[in-house]
Design goal:
Number of helices of chain A: 11
CATH topology of the largest domain in chain A: FAD/NAD(P)-binding domain
Distance between the termini of chain B: 33 Å
Number of domains of chain A: 2
Number of domains of chain B: 2
Distance between the termini of chain A: 26 Å
CATH architecture of the largest domain in chain A: 3-Layer(bba) Sandwich
Helix content of chain A: 25-40%
Oligomer: heterodimer
Bound molecules: flavin-adenine dinucleotide, iron/sulfur cluster
CATH superfamily of the largest domain in chain A: FAD/NAD(P)-binding domain
Largest sheet of chain B: none
Largest interface: A-B, 32 and 32 residues
Strand content of chain B: under 5%
Structural class of chain B: mainly alpha
Number of strands of chain A: 18
Largest sheet of chain A: 8 strands, mixed
Amino acid sequence: MANASKSYDVLALGGGNAALCAAISARLEGASVLILESAPEFWRGGNTRHTRNMRLAHDAATATLTGPYPEEEMWDDLLRVTGGQTDEPLARMMIRQSKDMLEWISAQGVRFQPALGGTLSLSRTNAFFLGGGKAMLNALYRRALRLGVEVRYESEVIGLDIDAGRFGSATFRSGAGTDVVNAKALVAAAGGFEGNFDWMAEYWGPAAHNFLCRGTKWNQGSMLKMLLGQGVQQTGDPTQMHAVAIDARAPKYDGGIITRLDCVVFGIVVNQNAQRFYDEGEDLWPKRYAIWGRLIAGEPGQIAYIIYDEKSANAFMPSLYPAITGNSIAELAQKLALDPAALTGTVDAFNAAVRPGTFDVAALDDCRTEGLSPPKSHWARRLDQPPYYAYPVRPGITFTYLGVRVDHDARMLMADGTPSANMFAAGEIMAGNVLGKGYTAGIGMTIGAVFGRIAGREAARHARD
Amino acid sequence: MHATEALEEAGRLMIVCNSCRYCEGLCAVFPAMEQRRFFNDGDLNYLANLCHSCGACFTDCQFAPPHEFAVNVPQALARTRAESYAAYAWPKFMAPVFHENGWAVAFAAVASVAGFIGLMGFSIAPRDIFATWTEPGAFYRIFPHAVLAGVFGLAFAYAIVALIMGARNFWRDIGEPMATLAQPVSIWQAMEDAAQLRYLDGGGDDCYTGRKTDRRRLFHHLTFYGFALCFAATCVATLYHYLLGREAPYPIYDLPVVLGALGGVGLTIGPVGLWFGRWKADPVLRDEKSSGMDRAFLAMLFLTGVSGLALLGLRGTPWMNLLLTIHLGLVFALFVTMPYGKMVHGLYRFLALVRYARESRELKVQE
Ligand SMILES: Cc1cc2nc3c(=O)[nH]c(=O)nc-3n(C[C@H](O)[C@H](O)[C@H](O)COP(=O)(O)OP(=O)(O)OC[C@H]3O[C@@H](n4cnc5c(N)ncnc54)[C@H](O)[C@@H]3O)c2cc1C
Ligand code: SF4
Ligand code: SF4
């Protein structure tokens, strides 16, 4: 067990992918390492426990990845989703290093699904963890412990002693009291602040309290706040967050992947007043699913309802909660506590505007509305086959972008641009450097693993010299 | 709405898992689940009988308790599976035997051994119980061959009929057409999967405790192939008797003895390994109610193996007659309890694998 009298070479703060990769990498360089994780053992690993895959550049197919995914293509993808809000040299370095990641992380015991799994359309660009993110985490913890890394759960860090960019010690909760630990170098890998609705309310107002957190409640962003408060340079837009439409019945925290809904394109989406507010068929679903959280956040009560009919009942991935059904639009409205006349009016207007076309959900088809505002540009089909179905949806937060600025060694930069002597960062806490906004599946784990590996190595080297 | 609480819980979990699918690489259960959107009782029984309780999907689940979704697939499927055994029992009135299975099997074993000792009392004089007989046909001085063949033939025939009827109930319940049983590819695939226990390991080394391996596959192989060798030994001996007119006991180097000895070793070590493996596994994965059934079956196999080996080692000594009687009593009990104990798991799992082979082949063709 760790105690104040004991001092470590490297202190890894956090317990997810980034912290574990950093800890293992530092230990492999010979450093003594302590991990402080605020969650209890079962909940260890933050949002990593909810993940499924990691995006990796590669020049040739492997057992777990089909086709090549060249660096240049991955860079183009990143550039597109961030709209240029990315540090190009840093991002390119990360993409280059992602090419070794499959091998490195497999050597740590993480296992992947064979490339030709059933439902996986992403298997060219993304490697899927066998058994999901929790299995991946279990493997990393097993490896870290075997290497001699020490881990303390229920040890939230509540104070960092930093003097002119040099870290000295950390204060953390320990049982009913607190404890202090010294280390020669620090790796901050404590995730984002998606669990902290009060903080989000600073940018979103009281509406933030109607959001749901798809991941862990342990990601309160306290570490991020401490670092920014002590002179570390900020990166990423604090008001930006990755939010998708998830089932409104989901728990406040940790609903994970199973509350997501992939049916927007099959119907219409209305707000509390039974009015449509955005083009449901603007673009292919994978390109648009991440805008709906923000859209709903802007609607009254931060709630909306996806409505579709029998034609589409089995057209998309099943999700946790059953759809609410009604034999008429008015009956459905009643069950949703919406105004039946208003909803019937909205559906009638939509139905009247639908032009004939050939439905094809895999392409930008010619099923669209005419003379309707907002329009539905593709996949518009009349809602006329009872029973009718509805899902209530709210914004579900996946990811935040505000972070600390780092250089190529994952070393934090201070507000005046000078590198910190011994502080490094990895994962979501510094994701904003390369991912200023937007999202592309699997990139969160890439950022954590690549920068975690670098941060651990550099921290160990610093401790040695 | 499902018929029982266990099915209700299994149904709830399959909805959760089907919207997650993170475990799809671990075993056959999840890919089979993904082919459905709704789960009736037959579907759930099918999935339950595909599961080996390896535990991988429990350790890997982000929604396991204490998460409020309380996902524990191995336990829910173990409960469903245990109930399904009773539901398929033939004749129906034998179903309760599954409820107190440990006691029922123990009672059958004791009664059967006692019965054989009683029979021995009839056929040989008390002073001959510890006589030393070594010549061919020595076994049959105690129990005439015709009697043995008749009694065991009947017991075996009954077991086979009851198992077939149970299999029929299973097949109907899961709603699989009879035609699948006429597809050599499906049968062959299922035989391959079953013979190597392909899905036992949760897709690799990630068994519940995180040890590299819990050796369950090894001990299961020892048990199963031990049983198969013993069965083969009996078949060869029967052929010797009727075709070649050669009577037991056979010399030590002869085929029935060699097969029986190897099988006996497997049947002795395998169940011991499985028994202690169970103790090590976390109770959170198990269906506590069926542990009596599991242990009774392991104990029966073990005792059969040990008594057979003892008979082999001590034949030609004064202990032979008694050991032979006990061994025969145990084998008889094993036969008659076969349709009413853990033995059925092999049958239903095999059939579930046949259906799985058919389904996954058709899925591949579609893609
Ligand atoms: C439902 C869902 C699915 C996702 N799927 C994917 C996917 O498939 N692929 C992908 O790449 N990304 C995915 N993501 C995003 C991904 O989860 C994050 O990018 C990733 O987990 C970030 O890793 P991390 O190690 O930086 O932080 P986390 O994994 O969130 O870990 C942060 C850790 O820090 C600890 N911590 C926080 N504060 C303190 C403190 N003060 N003291 C001590 N410890 C502290 C937390 O307890 C936690 O263990 C998903 C996210 C969600 C919510
Ligand atoms: S067991 Fe858990 S992780 Fe696995 S598929 Fe089911 S819900 Fe998902
Ligand atoms: S316990 Fe093992 S065999 Fe059963 S469903 Fe889970 S992973 Fe599959």
